[in-house]
Write a structure and sequence with these properties.
Strand content: 15-25%
Helix content: 10-25%
Oligomer: single chain
Shape: globular
Structural class: alpha/beta
Distance between the termini: 53 Å
Radius of gyration: 19 Å
């Protein structure tokens, strides 16, 4: 009896790992995130499918209940898949679920997935690193209001001279951008917003740090700030 914390990838079902797909096809129980619903067609007939997805500002199934369900089914079923958007250990609370399983003596494995942190910029034609442009990138959650950042945090981000990736920031991106400008980052710094990356609903918007707050995109959206956001390396459409 094993619980598998499976990374579903950024949205496109073809970006699920081969092992993740195999486990999904053999699972007795599948507990899935909202952004992983497109993969449920791979689940075997008769599998128990439980929606434990969260949305911005809404968590119908609290994390403590998700942990309890994983432990309960992990004790009774041969194969349990916890299907998580992106990668289980990147802004996905997979660590909390792994700790709960470990504390309860339930066997588990982590099946990595492609995180939107790298997939969304790539799908938008934005390399996170590029020789002569950016040698590093930093990822932060935009779930928290920047007014609650610790002292010196914004100044440290502004001084990195690399790429900044902000996830889950739809509600706070304008304040985050303003805080970075206050901390010394050039307001003309290129920026990009990507919604529903790698899916047929993908939208890409180009802006600058000064204007990225006016780009209105619904979740799931990700923001890239830095000189690399001025690049557009998407292939030309066929026949162009």
């Amino acid at each position: 009896m094993t619980v598998y914390l499976v990374g579903a990838g950024p949205g496109d079902p073809e970006l699920l790992s081969v092992r993740g797909a195999r486990l999904l096809r053999s699972a007795d129980v599948v507990l899935h995130d909202r952004l992983a619903r497109a993969l449920l067609g791979l689940a075997k007939a008769g599998a128990q499918v439980i929606d434990v997805g969260k949305a911005p500002g809404s968590a119908p199934v609290p994390q403590e209940e998700i942990n309890r369900l994983l432990i309960e089914h992990g004790r009774r079923r041969r194969c349990v898949v916890r299907l998580k958007g992106g990668d289980p250990f990147v802004f996905a609370r997979g660590a909390e679920e792994a700790m709960a399983l470990k504390a309860s003596g339930i066997a588990f494995e982590i099946i990595p997935g492609i995180s939107s942190v790298v997939a969304a910029p790539a799908a938008a034609g934005v390399p996170l690193t590029c020789r002569g442009v950016a040698r590093s990138f930093t990822v932060l959650t935009g779930h928290e209001d920047p007014e609650r950042w610790p002292p010196g945090y914004a100044e440290a981000l502004a001084s990195l001279a690399g790429t900044i990736v902000v996830v889950m920031a739809t509600n706070h991106i304008s304040r985050i951008a303003a805080r970075l400008v206050e901390a010394g980052l050039d307001p003309r710094t290129p920026a990009a917003a990507v919604r529903a990356a790698t899916t047929s609903a993908q939208v890409v918007r180009r802006a600058t740090l000064a204007t990225i707050g006016s780009v209105l995109l619904d979740p799931p959206s990700l923001f890239v700030i830095g000189d690399v956001a001025g690049l557009d390396l998407r292939p030309a459409p066929l026949g162009a």
